[in-house]
Design goal:
Elements lengths: L2 E16 L2 E3 L4 E20 L16 E8 L9 H15 L6 E7 L3 E5 L6 E2 L2 H11 L10 H13 L5 E8 L8 H11 L4 E7 L5 H10 L4 E4 L5 H13 L3 E9 L5 E9 L3 E2 L5 E2 L4 E9 L2 E10 L8 E11 L8 E13 L2 H5 L3 H24 L3 H18 L2 H7 L3 E5 L4 E4 L5 H9 L10
Parallel strand pairs: 2-18, 4-5, 4-8, 8-9, 9-10
Antiparallel strand pairs: 1-3, 3-16, 5-6, 5-7, 11-15, 11-17, 12-13, 12-16, 14-15, 17-18, 19-20
Helix pairs in contact: 1-2, 1-6, 3-4, 8-9, 9-10
Length: 451
């Protein structure tokens, strides 16, 4: 039987934005689903029965568990300030832990090592354990290689010892994953996906941006560059405060489709572009769950595309039922938190059937913007000047149209903008590594459409 912690589920609301009209024979239905969570609703969050050895506080499990993974490879000694900043940042994150949260610190090199508390367990945050953890951090020193998959697997084992509803990792690296095959990291991400979320940070400018983004995307966290190690403490504090603001974990977006309809794709489109289609888990006849991770007070947008059977003018059908669900840990029916409907209506009104919903159009452009930036930077690295110019020019045009001022400023550090409206640009001859890596890291960040 499920235990019920004192934590509460936020109030969830689902809004569906779409053009419901299709031309005769039309089959593709697009919709933007806005999910908003506000405050605790007072509903108890189901918790699984405690496993032997799990962390317990005052007779109940902590509501959150966090593992901080710190890169301690040899490259962290160049310059020495990098390792010192990493220790200080981890100490700042420990200070930001809420009373009673379960936590651990892991040192990562070509292997993973428990720094605190050790013994394959988690500590419970209070004045004493915070002090002990910060004292243990003083002993961290750089040396060895980098095998990030081993760090993640140790974090997974530690977090599995807790029955907390929020399980989260924070990972810091400064270099490439050179002591581990790409398939090994991919396998580790597959194992950890759905078991905990993870924010990934790259410090300096010598790491591989795509690796950091891949980790964050697979584990439903955030990715960011901290080019100057001096900024780590503030970033780690902000990350930990965000984790402490989460109220419920393991929420899924469930799509039910009628007979003959199929889901073509599901993407998160705000606050970042994230592909969720491949993470579907079957949830009964014609239903599938797409993970969304942990929630606090926040709002996110999802783009769903459904292929429906063609129909004659005048017909109407339910294309999909979209639900926010909290799967029960004991196998009983999931708790439905909110619900919305995606519809299809066939019409011979050309104006109605060819109109594109503003929200769908906006996020389609935002997804193209992210892709254009990433392709443009890849082409630039490969020496294809014409291809890079065309892609980055298109990115400038899309950023200008959507009012994405932050991305436009980052693009201006890589290209000289001649005409933003038409996407006419020239590649800059000299571009700093920081500017290029920052643009790539933040390429998936989106601006919300005004509804």
């Amino acid at each position: 039987m499920a235990n019920f912690a004192k934590a509460s589920v936020p109030q969830f609301a689902v809004e569906v934005y779409q053009n419901v009209h299709l031309p005769e024979g039309g089959r593709e239905v697009n919709a933007v689903v806005t999910v908003t969570a506000t405050g605790g609703a007072g509903e108890p969050v189901p918790q699984p029965s405690r496993s032997p050895g799990s962390v317990v506080l005052n007779g109940r499990s902590p509501d959150a568990a966090v593992v901080i993974m710190v890169d301690c490879s040899g490259s962290m000694d160049y310059p020495p300030a990098k390792m010192r900043s990493a220790r200080e940042a981890t100490a700042a994150a420990v200070d930001a832990l809420r009373e009673g949260v379960a936590f651990a610190v892991v040192a990562g090199t070509h292997q993973a090592r428990e720094v605190y508390p050790g013994g394959g367990r988690l500590a419970v945050a209070d004045a004493v354990t915070r002090g002990q953890a910060k004292e243990a951090l003083r002993k961290l020193s750089p040396g060895g290689g980098t095998a990030i998959g081993t760090w993640l697997r140790l974090a997974d084992r530690l977090l599995a010892s807790s029955d907390a509803s929020i399980r989260h990792g924070i990972l810091l690296t400064d270099g490439r994953n050179e002591h581990e095959e790409a398939d090994a990291l991919r396998a580790s991400l597959d194992v950890c996906a759905g078991r905990f979320t993870c924010d990934a940070r790259g410090v300096g400018t010598d790491y591989e941006v795509k690796e950091v983004m891949r980790i964050a995307s697979a584990l439903l966290g955030t990715a960011e560059i901290v080019a100057d190690p001096a900024g780590l403490a503030a970033d780690f504090t902000h990350m930990m405060e965000a984790v402490m603001g989460k109220e419920v974990g393991d929420v899924c977006l469930r799509l039910w489709t009628p007979l003959g309809a199929e889901v073509l794709f599901v993407k998160q489109c705000a606050p970042t572009v994230e592909e969720l289609t491949g993470q579907r888990q079957e949830a009964g006849p014609r239903a599938g769950d797409y993970p969304t991770g942990s929630w606090g007070d926040e709002s996110r947008d999802y783009h769903v595309c459904i292929r429906v059977p063609s129909a004659a003018v005048g017909r109407e059908m339910l294309a999909a039922r979209v639900s926010l669900v909290l799967p029960a840990p004991d196998g009983s029916p999931a708790q439905v938190l909110a619900q919305g409907l995606v519809r299809a209506v066939w019409t011979d009104d050309v104006v109605a059937s060819t109109s594109i919903n503003p929200q769908v159009a906006h996020y389609t452009g935002q997804a193209e913007l992210a892709q254009a930036i990433q392709q443009g930077l890849d082409l630039r690295k490969a020496g294809d000047i014409d291809g890079a110019t065309a892609k980055l020019g298109r990115a400038v045009q899309l950023a200008s149209r959507s009012g994405h001022e932050a991305t436009a400023k980052l693009l201006a550090k890589v290209v000289d903008v001649v005409d933003a409206a038409n996407g006419t640009v020239r590649l800059k001859a000299n571009v700093s590594k920081e500017a290029e890596m920052t643009l790539e890291t933040r390429s998936t960040k989106t601006v919300r459409v005004k509804k």
